[in-house]
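The data are quoted verbatim for reference:
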Amino acid sequence: MPLHRFFADDIRALRQGTSGFVAGSERERTARLADRAARSTLPVLIETEAGSGAKALAKAIHESGERKTRPFISLLTEEALSEGGTQGASLLRHLKEANGGTLFIERVEQLSQEAQTRLMETIFHQDAASRPARRLDVRIIAGAGFNLADKVREGRFSQDLYYRLQAMPLALRPLRAQRETIAEWARFFAERFARDEGKRIRGLSADALTLLTRYDWPGNLRQLENAVYRAVILADGAFLTPSEFPQVAAHVEGFRIEIPPVPAARTLAPIRTQEPAEKPAPHALSLIRESGDMLTLAELEERAIRFALVHYQGHLSAISRHLGIGRSTLYRKLKELGLSDAAA
């Protein structure tokens, strides 16, 4: 299940009265704010740290609102710069694609002055009387760091645009400030990746959950997601234990890093026709499903990209270089797979 479905399911459960949230919890607060945003047509500003799931929350808001059947387009400001041309031209192209729906602008504080002006003219109709042909019907949801107000005071971000986006502000707190949700997120990721990878994993051990809850997660949800993915790939047992999280355990006092021993060498019997292949090394990508059928090329490509995101810790330059594809191509594939939030 994609990450945005977690938020969308919380919104739906809240509306149906079946949420079971702890009163006053961060999860309840986020769901209530997202529900209000979904019922409105106002611009939304999601302020948060990098890796906290702003795009997933934006998509959940879109899919829970009246524009849910219309396009949801995302613009990564870094991507706009890498595609060549001007950021303003890239913004206008994305706005046209999102006409009638929603445009999510990630890291809106990185928009150039030209792009900020273009957004005001095209969507908020400032000085738009002379440009009637450029008016578009697009709802804007923007993601930004907690320092956007500072950039306004420094004159590096349009005050007018800031106040327009502030029509419906939503702060998404970092994981270390909502430790009670870490176990829920870890179980969500473990179930999702176990299903994707065909692993029979029933959950996380109590010690593993304690370990994950005590870690500060500077990379937030993106880092937790990658850590659980790596653990699922490496796991041999029915439950994920601290042994599958050595990088996390190294930073949490009181946890001893236990790495499973290397199996003793043995002679491999030849693989017979119609028999399943030998189980690959934990870091290898399987070519077949449990049924014995091969994966499609599209499925193999998705697994390779997911593995590269973990192996190179979300650094896009390294990922594109080692996968042998251009950076803009990688951005496009990440968007198609719903993995933009996993990029550093």
Q: What stands out?
A: Confidence is low (pLDDT under 50) at residues 273-277. The CA atoms of residues 320 and 326 lie 6 Å apart. The beta strands are 44-48, 72-76, 102-106, 139-144, 169-172, 203-204, 239-240.
